[in-house]
Batch of 3 targets.
Target 1
Amino acid sequence: MRSPRNDGRAVVEICRRMYERGYVVATEGNVSVRLRSGEILVTATRVRKREIATGDLVRLTPGGVRVAGSPRPSSEAALHTLIYSKRSDINAVVHAHPPCCSAFAVAGKRLRVGAIPEVLVEFGDIPLVPFAVPGTGKLPKAITPHLMKSNFFLLANHGVVSCAADLEEAYDLVERAEHAARILLLAESLGGAGNLSPRDRRELRHIRQTRTDGQRHGVRQR
Ligand code: 13P
């Protein structure tokens, strides 16, 4: 496994990958990392993700103040800095509009991953954050009650936010969730996803708990 890279080049690479996968179009979405110094590197506002370069990244102090000379930061920068301030285990945040996840979000429907064993183990329950106008202080406020429960959030009528110890992991969560959302949408056309038994779900939640405890003690499972 490659060692995690939380730097400007990694941000650019993830933005372009998200654009290529269709998780964002045009200037949508934003990505950030927390640097070793504690400063935050976030994408500038309204930058095209297909052609983003390291010059389109903005350096912020841990308190969210722009370091002189940088372009204007993402309109969601306050959401990113809030996550870093509340979660010392997080060093990367991704916000995107992947179509299948966003279809659930726009419909105001929870992403019920409990029917897919590996996805249940990975995510547990995915919070559906009530709608808040994008780019305003209302969004950090709306996500706050959910922040300690998950690393992945569906934003009603908007998209997703994913966070992790490193950027590749934060991206992986988006990719996994989008794949699961697609499977669930396809299952709808076949009569809907079947339910696992309560016993199977309990066993899967136990596996998730064991894995999470291992990660808290510094054991990487993946
Ligand atoms: P920014 O260009 O300001 O980052 O906004 C993009 C976006 O997706 C807002 O939710």
Target 2
Amino acid sequence: MQPIRPPYIGRFAPTPSGYLHFGSLVAALASYLDARHVGGRWLLRMEDLDPPREMPGAQDTILRSLESYGLHWDGEVLKQSQRHAAYAGVLERLLQQGLAYACTCSRKQLEGCAGIYPGTCRDANHATADAAIRLRVPNLEYCFEDRVQGRFCQHLQRELGDFVIRRRDGLYAYQLAVVLDDAAQGITDVVRGADLLDNTPRQLYLQELLGLSHPRYLHVPLIIQPDGHKLGKRYRSPPLPPEQASPLLARALRALGQALPQELEGALPAELLEWGVEHWNASAIPRSRTLAEAQLR
Ligand code: GLU
Ligand code: ZN
């Protein structure tokens, strides 16, 4: 017997540290089409966990961009800034169970560790005030089958070490928030950029620890600039121009390997999306981690 899959619920989860750019449009579009093709719901979550890095006005601009590109979401926008109580409760429980601990290492002390936390504070019993909170990771490899990128594995202890779930400045880490929010919103399918592929094993481990079910994952290629950098915040991309919605949606469809017919060139956003929803074929997405923007037509 086939296991029964719950009805599809997808989401787009932008961070308001900058505006949407062509790369985020590609990810949003893939997530939208993957959901709508099977009649699923598509939710929106504002990942406003880090006020100091937030760009004033970005939240509204992101919502307006999605609307002008015809990417309409279901229900209310969930804001991570409203979810601190949920994060705090789980953090407290992990601390009490000894699964997480306080770390007082300075950046300087961790230099030379090549990004792999050596476990210095594991058994030090530091107070949690003015300390980062790290999650103990098992000496195990975590693997999953990505719908586009194939099998991906990471050995949490050897490749990463115990990772931060609350920063020293008191801000909650993305890894913790994303896992709790995906579960709270009942997300069955995560579709996002391939820059997050190597975050997924951490999220699988947290889901396992907290008794949450694993969503399916699909990581779309990251759009990169000629110098190899990802498009984005660092370059202060301007907002997606509303008057460019048709050509940019057509370009994003082609970047995702969807064979948009020539006669739909110049069609309205709603028409392009209607075609996309009907013809969506996730197996046509290029099986690569990156795509050069300059090569997209
Ligand atoms: N907020 C993250 C970003 O903008 C995406 C998180 C996710 O999709 O899991 O890169
Ligand atoms: Zn430490």
Target 3
Amino acid sequence: MIANTILNGKVKFLFVLCFSFFLVSCQNESDGNFIANTSIIPKPQLTQLKEGYLEASEFIINENSKFVDHINFFENQFQNYSQKKGKYIKSGIGENLIVNINNEGLQIKGNYKLKVDEEKILIEGDQKGIFYGFQTLFQLILLNNENFKENFKIPCLKIQDSSSFSHRGFLMDCCRHFFSIETIKKYIDLLAFYKMNVLHWHLTEDQGWRIEMEKYPKLNSIGSFRKDSLGLYGGFYTKNEIKEIVNYATERYIEIIPEIELPGHSTAAIASYPYLSCEQKPVKVANTWGVFKDIYCAGNDSVFLFLENVFDEIVDLFPSNRIHIGGDEAPKFRWENCKKCQNRMKNENLPDEHALQSYFIERIAEILAKKNRSIIGWDEILESEISSEVSIQSWRGFFGGVEAVKQGKKAIMSPTSHCYFDYEIESIDLEKVYSFSPIPNGLDSIEETLIIGGECNLWSERIPNEKELDCKSFPRLLAMSEVLWRNPKKNYVNFQKRVESHYPILDVLNVDYGIESTPATIKLEHSKKTHAVIETKVKNLKYFFHWGDDSLKPLNNNKTIVNSSGILSIQAFKNQRKYGKVIQQKISIHKGIGKSVEYKNFFSEYYKSDGVKTLTDGKLGSLNFKDGNWQGFFGSNFEVVLDLDTMTSLNSISINFYQYINSWIVIPKNIQLYKSTDQKKWTKVKSLEGFSEIKKRGKFIKEAIFQDLKIESKFIKIIAENFEELPSWHEAAGSKCWIFTDEIIIR
Ligand code: ACM
Ligand code: ZN
């Protein structure tokens, strides 16, 4: 990076830089119909488009330019993009167009001004601002020039720009899957291009330790590799590689914040050095996903010595004054059963294991404070009081961040609802990301300033390679970049149009971007016949469908008849290319369709599916619980009354429940079925006891079916009992559970 010079007690920069262009023509007759494209992302705070454009074949700068690094960077960016060998930028005298770079009076925040007229370009800003000014200029060149065989044109305009948040982050998980140095650099380039400024680098996990360690070599020889069905998987970054990445990022004004997880998500470290855990028994580096019971022992001082030594090496590698220490998903089961941990609680007067977690975090904060570093932790670290200076990253919603700022701590918002880009597009699409505002309602102005920004998280359990990383990150990253740059000024329609202009650029940048939104949501319309109707937010899609034994057919008017139960498959196309995967919708046609349902305990806002119509809409859920068909009930029993309108003969009633214990979704324990003619007097018809599958892992659906009923009824009540909390032996012990269901099928 370019060194700052301190003058007169004020930070000032050497600033005059002259660019020159070979001016070819500003109003070339044959090009008189130039249409300016200003689809810059993130959209600058202020853009004034002017008449005309600048046309040039290359830039000529003043040979005394002090901004060699910025210029060289821009030159390289330009050359890499256009694959041109020759130089775009030359220095010399006799230049006929001049660009002045000037930062006087501007703060060191990355603010900049960019002015293009028919003869020159002017960029003003502090060092970081100049860098961002160049990124904006670069985008303008790419947006307005399809190729670089001819002179390039840049629309005349004035831009004044600054960011809304100082922390605009991207979390890359290199533990669940390992990404090469090249992929990481590609992402740093992309982050810089979209003016993001933090790479949160997740480097230690249950499934692998990814940093070369001098003092603890087994962290690499054992902890960096896991055995799965294909053999050994893993790797680590050498210290030299890490330094290379950090320098690469620094040159692009990106801060790398390493995450060293503790006290949980530490199986790889424990596998390397079993003395770090409570039981001190050998374990294997994890080769499945989830939350694991063995965590660092909080009662053993050698654990803190180990971590202090680890952090000695970490702070040598990472210049950032912030270190992320994780703190999430640390089950307390081992601590509850560990003599050392219990002794620690007694000696330190700690009322429970949550307080012990805070004790753990405080000790680490003290270790890092001695090294002049502050810590960031996930919102769980607020479970008990923390007095050290910590910043909170809020992920289980916004409440952790709100709690943090109310305690005067800084917060970074990355709620699962908007920021988890590892989630499927069905649950977080481009518009949903664009609707993200890191600042929730109800904060005062001081509290608002403590929210320093947001992050999108790319947990890589289901991101095995760069292709999948691209597909999950893009185009959603563009939305994140804009909301963090420009909160709260937003216009989705305008944004979506600008995104279209970026696809050709992303193609050249070798980004295998994914889709913007679900290409087809299937609605069932019930009258005499049932029609499946396709809806989508994506423009210009065409569909083919498959139903029953039929062959694949074009879907006319986005609508088809379905009068029996079955699976409807839909494939969308955009510009003759497949758009997204085949969408399959299971459909059940039954007596209860369209009937009204009353809820005793309401469904969650996060998993509401189609609201009160969900349980009788004829649509069944898939194994993806975020497919929009599942309705979720948090921490309470499921209890609904179905009104069949008239006395109806009933032979069977079934209801599906979903389980994925890693996401705290659990099949209920007992299910009861009641009938009534007036909703006053209820008669129990049948019940299913011991229906749960609490020990079973993975994602599955279990159908609760009441058969051979041979009854008549007008009202039906179903009660399914939730587990109030996961039992103590479970990794996520103590957490409340969800019940998920999709349809009440009446036959
Ligand atoms: C997290 O997603 N466990 C922070
Ligand atoms: Zn212990």
